[in-house]
Design goal:
Rossmann fold; seven-stranded parallel sheet
C-alpha cells in the first residue's frame, strides 16, 4: 500500500518491533511520507536484511530487547542525536505464547508481560520528555485480543488488555500537554507471529468465516492506520483503541445464516 502524502516530512519517528510484519510495514510507510525513522528490532541481522536498499540518510537501525530497562533511554538519545528530537513513538514490539491459566508457564507469562507491557511502558516513559517538546503522538499496537478474549491465550490477552487501558490512562494524563496516545487493534494479520496459523487451512477457514471481509489483514493495511493516528489528520483523536479487523468487531458472534 503506497502513499503519495508527505505528512511527516522532516519529523523524527521511532518504531519498535521493526524488523518484520507490521513494524517493517510501518517503517516503510513513514519513510514514504518523508519521515526520519529510528527502527528498533531485537536482532541486528534481521533488521539489516529487512531494510537492505533503504535510504539510510533517513533511517537509523538499532537493535536490542525492549524489556531491557537500559535500552529505552539509549534509543531516545540516538533518535535525538541523529534526527534532532522525537515526534512520534510507535510501540509495536510484541510476542505471543498460547495456553490457559493452568497450561502457561510462569516463564512464558513473565516474558509476554515484559515485552508486550513493560517494554511499551519503558519506551513511552523515556520518550515522553521529547514528545512533550514536539507535542507529538504515541501509537501502540494492541490487538482485538485486548478488546475481547481468545480461547487458550490467557497471557497474550492479559498483556494486550493492559496496553488497551494504558492508552486510555496516558491519553487522560497527557492530553493537556498536547500529546496524543492511541492504539491500533488488529485482527489476524499476515505476520511472522501468525505464520503457523496461515499454514493451517482448517483454522484459516474458521477465521475467514468470522471476519466479514473474508480474509486476514496485510501488514501494510495496519501501517496505514498507524500513520493516520500519528498524523495531524488525527489531531482530535485521543485515547482510542481502534479495531483494524475487517469488520470482525461489528459482529455479536452469531454465525452467518444461510
Amino acid at each position: 500500500m503506497e502513499s503519495n502524502l508527505n505528512r511527516f516530512g522532516g519529523m523524527s519517528i521511532i518504531v519498535t518491533g521493526a524488523a518484520s510484519g507490521i513494524g517493517k510495514a510501518t517503517v516503510e510507510r513513514f519513510l514514504s511520507e518523508g519521515a526520519n525513522v529510528t527502527a528498533l528490532g531485537h536482532h541486528r541481522e534481521k533488521l539489516e536484511d529487512a531494510f537492505d536498499g533503504a535510504d539510510k540518510e533517513r533511517l537509523q537501525l538499532l537493535d536490542g530487547d525492549v524489556s531491557d530497562p537500559d535500552l529505552a533511554p539509549k534509543v531516545i538519545a540516538a533518535a535525538v542525536d541523529r534526527f534532532g528530537g522525537v515526534d512520534v513513538l510507535v510501540n509495536n514490539a510484541g510476542m505471543g505464547t498460547g495456553g490457559t491459566v493452568e497450561d502457561i508457564s510462569l516463564e512464558d507469562w513473565n516474558r509476554q508481560m515484559a515485552v508486550n507491557v513493560t517494554g511499551y511502558f519503558l519506551m513511552a516513559k523515556a520518550a515522553m520528555p521529547e514528545i512533550r517538546k514536539t507535542k507529538g503522538a504515541i501509537v501502540m499496537t494492541s490487538s482485538v485480543s485486548g478488546l475481547g478474549g481468545d480461547w487458550s491465550f490467557v497471557g497474550y490477552n492479559a498483556s494486550k488488555g493492559a496496553i488497551t487501558n494504558m492508552v486510555r490512562a496516558m491519553a487522560l494524563d497527557h492530553a493537556g500537554e498536547g500529546i496524543r496516545v492511541n492504539a491500533v487493534c488488529p485482527s489476524m494479520t499476515k505476520t511472522g507471529m501468525t505464520e503457523g496459523m496461515m499454514d493451517n487451512d482448517e483454522l484459516l477457514d474458521k477465521f475467514r468465516e468470522r471476519i466479514p471481509s473474508g480474509r486476514p489483514g496485510e501488514p501494510e493495511e495496519i501501517a496505514a492506520v498507524i500513520a493516520f493516528l500519528a498524523s495531524k489528520d488525527a489531531v482530535w483523536v485521543n485515547g482510542v483503541n481502534l479495531p483494524v479487523d475487517g469488520g470482525l468487531s461489528a459482529s455479536n458472534g452469531q454465525p452467518p445464516l444461510g
